[in-house]
Structure formats: structure tokens, C-alpha cells
């Protein structure tokens, strides 16, 4: 099982969505489905940035390539193209632009699940000497980019990890949104909406009640604040492996 | 000839095995869900309606989608017919024999999918 690892699936064919979703659910992932690029963006706005996206290219109105570029501008989530477009030029464009993998239809559902699992596990390669922050109800493992809640390790995306790291290093002090934007996306022309979406997702992972956050607070008009009196602990001593 | 043998002429057995092995959801096997979607799909009607009114781009779009769906369930002959229409959509517009051929193959695929899902004829209407 992969608790709270969410995958966005975008395809305008319900049959393809159904097959891909069933295979990925069986692999233990939570699936968010959309039938168009626009619907995919709505899902992201509503539920936050997923841990990985699987996108068709030939979608009605706006293409999956456009959607991939848009998602990449606001997040570094892994993106897998799943498409019947089989010309090499399109595959190269997608891979050079944003895609982590390019799978051609018809696809084997088990192979899709294996590739997704492989990509996610590469993104979550643990660091050798992790530092952890133990709070009352959660453990934050920054170097390994994961959170332990209710006995389960929940992976953080690289973006979420960077935001959390910056806030924890400055815990007790407000970190301006502009500073966080520079820290997380130093080369990107990214807007505060992307930051808000990622903070929203982080809260879902670390807060017991995300609507009334205890640790990750918004200071309206200023930025964000991580509030905790806990100290950084060494992973080795506490055996968090 | 056995039912399984008839079916293997229409659907690729390996693809059906793979789909059949995925876990059921709410008591519904993936193959049942796929058969239902094929049976209730208006895609073939859209394709033939577009052909009867000579809407070339609509023919191409529907044929492309039908090719993709057919390939996913291992219906190679149906995918081939749809692929040929996608490549030359104007030819379907004037060819009733071809329209009948794809209609017949579509029916065979739907029947083979129900068969593979283990759903009998009298149960299919309820699914």
C-alpha cells in the first residue's frame, strides 16, 4: 500500500481511465480522475497537486501536452504521458519538456503500475543520514522527505519537502511568501497560487485538522509560519528507518 | 469449436487474461465493466452517423477513439478496421459494405467481452 500517494489520471476515454485506475488502485494508489485538461486543473485546484500525473495527449480542447507544461510550471511532480500518439517527435518534445515517461497505447495495465511505482520510488530515495522532527502526533523526516502519521510513512513531493524544510529551519518566525517562492522555484516564474496549493497539500499530510492547522500557519499578507517547540532529532538514535 | 476458441478469434487471450486478473471493485469485475462500456457506447453510432452525413473530421475522431478502445481490450480486427477508417475517413462515407463490416465486428467484440466476463445473455441487460 502507498497511503496518501495520489495519482491524477487524465483521459477522455472512460474505458481507458477505468483500466488504468483499476491497475493503479490495485497497486495501492489513490486515484483522481479527469476527462479533460480543464477538469484536471480543477481537480488540482480542489485537491492539491498530486504525487504523480498520468496524462493522455489527445484531449478535447486543450491538449495533454499543454496540461503537462502547466503542471510543470507550478510543481515538480512526475508526469507520465499515456497516449496513442506514437511519433517520436512528440515523445521527444514531451520528455525534453516535462515528462518522466512516455507510454504508448495500447498499454499493459500492470506495466503502467510498475513504471509509476518505479518513478515514485526513485523520487523517494532515502538520504543516508536523515534528520527528523518529532511532534506530538507526527514525525517529519526532512532528508527522506516523508511524514509518519498513524504508523504509516507518507511521502512528500520534492516541492513539499523544500517548503517544509524552509519553514522548519525558520520555525517560530514568519517566512515571507516571496522568500519561499525564491527558495522553492529559484529559476521559475511561479505565482503564489502554486505555493498556496503546495501548502494546502502539506497540511493534508501533517495536520490532523488541515482546516485549523496547528503547525503550518498562514500569516495573512506576510507569509507562512511553522510553529513548534520540538527540536531536530537524529534519525539514527531514534531508529526511524 | 469451443466458446474460448471463438472468443480468441475476436479478442487477444493474453490481454483478456491481464484484464481479468485485476481485482473486482464493488463486486464488478473489470471485464464486466469493460463489456458494459462497449455495449452501451454510442461511439459506433457516432462513427456511422458521421459517415452517413459525410463529416470527415468527425469520422476521423470517432475512428481514432474506437481504434484506441479496441486495442486496449485486444480486439485486433476491430482496431484494424477503425485504424483504416481513421487513415482514410472519406472512404467510409461512401461505403455501406465497410460500415456493415465494422458494425458486425463491433457486435462480435461486445459478445466476446460479455462471454469473457462470464456474464450470460439474460444477465447482460441487468448489468
Provide an overview of this structure.
- The complex is a heterodimer of chains A (241) and B (127).
- With 241 residues, chain A is an alpha/beta fold.
- Helices cover 41% and strands 22% of the residues of chain A.
- In chain A, strands 2-1-3-4-5 form a five-stranded parallel sheet, sandwiched between helices. Chain A has a five-stranded antiparallel sheet with strand order 9-8-7-6-13.
- Chain A is globular, with a radius of gyration of 18 Å.
- Mean pLDDT of chain A is 84; it is low at 233-241.
- With 127 residues, chain B is mainly α.
- Helix content of chain B is 77%, strand content 0%.
- The chains are: A alpha/beta (241), B mainly alpha (127).
- Chain A binds chain B through residues 13-16, 18-19, 22-23, 25-26, 58, 84, 105-110, and chain B through 15, 18-19, 22-23, 25, 30, 33-34, 37-38, 64-65, 67-69, 71-74.
Label the overall shape of chain A: globular
Main sheet summary of chain A: 5 strands, parallel
Assembly status: heterodimer
Strand content of chain B: under 5%
* Uncertain residue segments of chain A: 233-241
Tally of separate helices of chain A: 9
The shape of chain B, in one word, is: elongated
Count of β-strands of chain B: 0
Structural class of chain B: mainly alpha
Amino acid at each position: 500500500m502507498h497511503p496518501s500517494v495520489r495519482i491524477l489520471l487524465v483521459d477522455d476515454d472512460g474505458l481507458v481511465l477505468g483500466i488504468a485506475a483499476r491497475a493503479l488502485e490495485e497497486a495501492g494508489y489513490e486515484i483522481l480522475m479527469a476527462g479533460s485538461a480543464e477538469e484536471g486543473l480543477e481537480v488540482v485546484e480542489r485537491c492539491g497537486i498530486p504525487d504523480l500525473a498520468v496524462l493522455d495527449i489527445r484531449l478535447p480542447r486543450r491538449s495533454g501536452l499543454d496540461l503537462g507544461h502547466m503542471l510543470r510550471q507550478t510543481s515538480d511532480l512526475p508526469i507520465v504521458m499515456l497516449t496513442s500518439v506514437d511519433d517520436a517527435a512528440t515523445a521527444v518534445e514531451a520528455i525534453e519538456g516535462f515528462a518522466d515517461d512516455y507510454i504508448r497505447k495500447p498499454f499493459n495495465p500492470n506495466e503502467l503500475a510498475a513504471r509509476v511505482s518505479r518513478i515514485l520510488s526513485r523520487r523517494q530515495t532515502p538520504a543516508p543520514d536523515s534528520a527528523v522532527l518529532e511532534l506530538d502526533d507526527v514525525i517529519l523526516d526532512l532528508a527522506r522527505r516523508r511524514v509518519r502519521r498513524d504508523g504509516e510513512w507518507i511521502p512528500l513531493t520534492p516541492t513539499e519537502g523544500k517548503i517544509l524544510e524552509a519553514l522548519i529551519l525558520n520555525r517560530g518566525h514568519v517566512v515571507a511568501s516571496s522568500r519561499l517562492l525564491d527558495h522553492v522555484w529559484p529559476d521559475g516564474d511561479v505565482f503564489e497560487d502554486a505555493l498556496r496549493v503546495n501548502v494546502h497539500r502539506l497540511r493534508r499530510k501533517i495536520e490532523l485538522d488541515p482546516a485549523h492547522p496547528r503547525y503550518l500557519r498562514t500569516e495573512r499578507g506576510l507569509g507562512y509560519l511553522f510553529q513548534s517547540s520540538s527540536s531536530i532529532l537524529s534519525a539514527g538514535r531514534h531508529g526511524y528507518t | 469449436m469451443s466458446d474460448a476458441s471463438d472468443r480468441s478469434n475476436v479478442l487477444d487471450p493474453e490481454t483478456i487474461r491481464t484484464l481479468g486478473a485485476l481485482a473486482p471493485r464493488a463486486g464488478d469485475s473489470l471485464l464486466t465493466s469493460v463489456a458494459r462500456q462497449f455495449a452501451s457506447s454510442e461511439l459506433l453510432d457516432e462513427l456511422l452517423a458521421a459517415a452517413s452525413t459525410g463529416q470527415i473530421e468527425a469520422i476521423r475522431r470517432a475512428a481514432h477513439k474506437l481504434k484506441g478502445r479496441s486495442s486496449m481490450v485486444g480486439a485486433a480486427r476491430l482496431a484494424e478496421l477503425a485504424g483504416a477508417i481513421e487513415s482514410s475517413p472519406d472512404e467510409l462515407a461512401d461505403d455501406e459494405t465497410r460500415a456493415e463490416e465494422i458494425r458486425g465486428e463491433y457486435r462480435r467484440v461486445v459478445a466476446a467481452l460479455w462471454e469473457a466476463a462470464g456474464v450470460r445473455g439474460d444477465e447482460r441487460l441487468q448489468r
